[in-house]
Design brief:
This protein folds into three domains: about 5-135 and about 195-275, Rossmann fold, CATH 3.40.50; about 140-180, no CATH class; about 305-450, Jelly Rolls, CATH 2.60.120. Helices cover about 20% and strands about 30% of the residues. It contains nine helices and 19 strands. The strands form four sheets. Strands 1-2-4-3-5-6-7-8 form an eight-stranded mixed sheet, sandwiched between helices. The longest helix has 13 residues, at about 80-90.
Length: about 450
C-alpha cells in the first residue's frame, strides 16, 4: 500500500521553503516523478497515487508563493532555480534511485521544462503547456489570471461570479478599464502577444536542447495546441499525441459546449504508459482515423493546397453597439449566421490537413482593426463549432494580410462541412473597434498544409 508523507520542505537558493507532499510505492528506492504546481498539491493526489501504484515515487510541490510555499509567485519566473533545487533534493533522498521524471499540465508543464536540464532528469511529460503562443484570447486569459494564475491560492468560480454580478464587465474585457473594476489584481492588462514572449522562448529553448525523451500531450479544444506542437517539433526525442481532451486548467467547457469529449484513452493514462516504458506514437484526428507513427509531427516545410475562396467585393459592417460575439467555448455558432458583421465562405470537401493553415487576402478598411479568421466545422445536424482561429492587425486603407490559424490535424468525414468566417474582432475573445467599421475583401485564399503520404490511416 502506498505511503503518503505531507509537509516536506525543500530550501530554495534564497532560503525560501517550498512545501511538498510525497507518495511512495511499496518497493524502494524507486524512480521519482516530480510535479511542481501552482494549483495546490492536493489536486494532484489522484495522479500521485496512480504513479505510486505503477512503481514511482511522486513528489508534488507547491510553487514559490503558492498555497503552502513561501515567497511570491510571479508567472514565468523562478522555475529554473527552484526546480533545480527541488531536483537536487529529490535525487539525494534514500527513497529515490537517482532517476527523476518530470510531469506537468498547463503551467506545471512550463515549470517542468524550466528544470529539464537537470542531470537527474530522464524524461519529461508535457501536457497542454503554458504559455500560449501568439495573440491571447482575452476572455480565457482573464479567466486564468482570476481563478488560477494570481495570488496565493486558486479561486475557482470567481471569474464567472464577477461577470454574473456585473455583466457590463464583459464588454470591458478587451480594454484596460476592466482591471480597475475587477475583484482581484490581474496585473498589466490587456495581455498582448508579447506578454509571455520571454517565457515562451525559455520553454522553446529547453525543448530544443533537451537530451532526454519527451511526451507531448495536447488538445485541439484549447489554445495549448500550437505550443504542444511547437515543443514536439523542437525536441529531438519527442513523441506527440493531440486529441480533443478537456482540462479545467487549460480551457473551459461550458454547458453550452457543442463538442463532446471524444472516447479514447485519457491523456494521463497515456502518460502513465509512457513513463512505464511503453511507447505510443501518433496524433489523434478531429475527424476519423488517426495519424500513423510514420510521421506524428507536422512537417517543418509542408506542401500546400491553395483554396481560392473568391469573396471579391464582399463586405462586413461592424457596429460597436452590437459586435460579433465570441460565444462560450465550443458553443454552437449556427444561431450567429444571419448577421451583417461577418463574411462566411464555404469550403468544398473532402478536406484534410496536417499543421498550421494560413489565410491570405486583400482587405480594405476604413478604420484600424484586428481581422479575425475562424474555421468553423459544421456537422450534418447543423451544429457549427469553432475549429481554429487566428488574427492579423489591419491599418486603415487597402493592404495584403496573412493570418496564421491554430494548427490541427483534420480529416472531415462525409457530410461534414467547413466554413471560413471573417470578422472585425470577436468580443470579448479578441478586441473589436470602438467605432463603426466597414471591411471589404478580395482574393481570399486559404492555404492548407498537405499531409505527407501515409500520414492518415
Amino acid at each position: 500500500m502506498s505511503e503518503v508523507r505531507t509537509g516536506l520542505t525543500v530550501t530554495a537558493s534564497d532560503g525560501a521553503r517550498l512545501v511538498a507532499d510525497l507518495v511512495l510505492p511499496d518497493r524502494l528506492p524507486a524512480p521519482a516523478v516530480v510535479i511542481r504546481t501552482p494549483y495546490g498539491a492536493s489536486g494532484c493526489l489522484p495522479e500521485a497515487l496512480s504513479l505510486a501504484e505503477a512503481g514511482f515515487a511522486c513528489l508534488v510541490q507547491d510553487l514559490r508563493g503558492r498555497h503552502l510555499s513561501e515567497g511570491a509567485f510571479t508567472p514565468g519566473t523562478d522555475e529554473t532555480a527552484d526546480g533545480h533545487a527541488s531536483l537536487d533534493w529529490t535525487a539525494a533522498q534514500p527513497w529515490c534511485d537517482g532517476e527523476v521524471f518530470l510531469y506537468g499540465l498547463a503551467y506545471e508543464a512550463y515549470a517542468a521544462w524550466c528544470a529539464a536540464g537537470h542531470p537527474a532528469v530522464r524524461g519529461i511529460v508535457s501536457r497542454q503547456p503554458w504559455p500560449p503562443i501568439g495573440s491571447p484570447a482575452l476572455d480565457e486569459e482573464l479567466w486564468w489570471r482570476t481563478d488560477l494564475g494570481t495570488g496565493r491560492t486558486v479561486r475557482t468560480g470567481l471569474y464567472d461570479a464577477a461577470l454574473a454580478r456585473a455583466p457590463h464587465l464583459t464588454g470591458l474585457i478587451p480594454v484596460a478599464a476592466v482591471a480597475e473594476a475587477w475583484p482581484v489584481d490581474v496585473g498589466p492588462w490587456p495581455a498582448t502577444p508579447s506578454t509571455y514572449k520571454s517565457a515562451a522562448r525559455r520553454m522553446a529553448r529547453a525543448a530544443r536542447t533537451a537530451t532526454v525523451p519527451s511526451l507531448h500531450l495536447g488538445s485541439w479544444y484549447c489554445r495549448s495546441a500550437p505550443a504542444t506542437l511547437r515543443q514536439a517539433m523542437l525536441a529531438p526525442r519527442a513523441e506527440a499525441v493531440v486529441g480533443g481532451w478537456a482540462s479545467a486548467l487549460t480551457h473551459r467547457l461550458q454547458p453550452e459546449c457543442a463538442l463532446p469529449e471524444p472516447a479514447g484513452p485519457h491523456p494521463f493514462a497515456l502518460a502513465l504508459e509512457w513513463l512505464g516504458g511503453f511507447r505510443r506514437n501518433g496524433c489523434l484526428l478531429l475527424g476519423t482515423g488517426r495519424w500513423t507513427d510514420t510521421d506524428p509531427i507536422p512537417p517543418g516545410r509542408p506542401g500546400w493546397t491553395a483554396l481560392p475562396l473568391g469573396a471579391n467585393g464582399m463586405r462586413l459592417r461592424h457596429d460597436p453597439a452590437a459586435p460579433y460575439p465570441s460565444a462560450p467555448h465550443s458553443a454552437d455558432l449556427a444561431p450567429l449566421t444571419d448577421r451583417d458583421d461577418v463574411v462566411r465562405l464555404p469550403l468544398d470537401g473532402p478536406l484534410h490537413w496536417h499543421g498550421t493553415p494560413r489565410l491570405t487576402a486583400e482587405v480594405t478598411t476604413d478604420t484600424g482593426t484586428e481581422l479575425v479568421a475562424t474555421l468553423v466545422h459544421e456537422q450534418p445536424d447543423g451544429t457549427a463549432t469553432r475549429m481554429a482561429d487566428g488574427t492579423a492587425p489591419l491599418a486603415t486603407g487597402t493592404s495584403r494580410c496573412e493570418v496564421r490559424l491554430a494548427p490541427a490535424a483534420a480529416e472531415l468525414p462525409p457530410g461534414h462541412r467547413l466554413h471560413l468566417e471573417l470578422t472585425a474582432g470577436r468580443t470579448p475573445r479578441h478586441p473589436a473597434p470602438q467605432r463603426r467599421a466597414e471591411l471589404s475583401f478580395r482574393d481570399v485564399t486559404l492555404h492548407l498544409p498537405r499531409p505527407r503520404k501515409g500520414v492518415f490511416a
